[in-house]
Amino acid sequence: MKVNFLSTVLFFFISCFSTLDAACQLNNSPNGSIKISFINTLNSVPIILDAVNYTNCWNENFTISALKYYISNVQFKTSNKKSIKEKNSYHLIDEENIVSKSFLCTVLPGNYLTLSFLIGVDSIKNVSGAQTDALDPLNSMFWTWNSGYIMFKLEGNSPNSTIVNNKIEYHIGGFAGTNNVLRQVELNLENNKALININSITEIVVQADVGKLWNAVHELKISQTPVCSTPGAPAAGIADNYSKAFTVIKIIN
Predict the structure, then answer these.
(1) CA-based Rg of the chain, rounded to a whole angstrom?
(2) Across 37-62, average pLDDT
(3) Which pTM does this prediction carry?
(4) How many whole angstroms separate alpha carbon 62 and alpha carbon 158?
């Protein structure tokens, strides 16, 4: 009887631990992945730094030497209205660094209807002291602890600029009150059918059209505003413009 009793108890504990282990593996294992890739374009042609002369909607010529912006607080909404949020969601998209223009998010399998994100860095991180990785001040996207992060940066040159060396410089930042340049973007995935399967990667290709910078909501002319590098109304207006630049052009299941 003792042997049978001990055997029963042992079997019970083994079964419990096996079930617990299986549950842990299920919770910790990646179910599926979404790769988000950004393509920076002008007139639907990929941006080439320092090498191409571009023309905006006001017939002003310019070149681009630097293009960077933050994508944060990435979220997906499923067909059953559940929201999936990426943890520690801060990404610096840098045209000069091809690796930075794509990142992976682990998600549950299923159909996804929308992708949303914040352009910029939320106010909490702006006042949380020194950060690392994408938020490291060494990325040259940080002003001071008082002014916070540069959310969007475009630098270049234009004959229409009245600044020394004909430079253009848009360093857009500000996270408090009327100076807040944080902008929420929500993109529809339903028409392209973002279907996530277990242990597979689905790629969402997002186009950022730099041409929207000049007139999507407000007029921005190089001849009038070649530089914007402090928080304020002009920066907020430019943020309104580039918030309209993002569209999903392709989903690869």
Answers:
(1) 23
(2) 95
(3) 0.86
(4) 4
